[in-house]
Amino acid sequence: MYINTSSDYYKLFNCFIQKEWEQAYVSFFEVDNLISTFKIECQYLAKKINPYYDRFFIECEDLICFDLRGNKILNLHTLFNQYSVIRNVKLENEKVFISLNKKNEEPRVEVIQFSCKEIRIFEQHRKEIKLQQLLDICSDYSDEDNERLKWR
Q1: Domain of 19?
Q2: Among 15, 27, 42, 141, which residue's beta carbon has the most beta carbons within 10 A?
Q3: Cβ within 8 Å of residue 70, ≥6 positions away
Q4: What is the pLDDT of residues 31-57, one digit of tens each?
Q5: Closest by alpha carbon to 112, among 1, 34, 26?
Q6: pTM: predicted TM-score of the whole model, two decimal places
Q7: Is 41 contained in some domain?
Q8: How far does CA 8 lie from the centroid of its chain?
């Protein structure tokens, strides 16, 4: 159930963009051999799988990130532990760009180019899920969101 295209990476991280009224952020990042693991706190989507869940795990094989000048970012641990909120995701010329900033801080944004060999997605208890399952959950949430906005 690996995903390995830029288009799919874009779809995946787009699910975790911080909403105005919901929290979504990277709460933990580690690298073990060639596998980088993100723990993404995202209760509003996780509870669609199980009402007691509040996170997902994303495993990336051979993760490489570059700054906007094309320089390889060497200390990913520091980057993802400092800049934990995904503000925007962009797909341009088969490259994925992610805008990150510190939790609860608007002005400072770090934009990186994201690349890896493949990604696997897991729910809270490390049961693997397919990208399409996550996209369906996001779609269901968006439908509910639209209904909620009608009542504002």
Answers
A1: 6-150
A2: 42
A3: 113
A4: 999 999 999 999 989 999 999 999 999
A5: 26
A6: 0.86
A7: yes
A8: 12
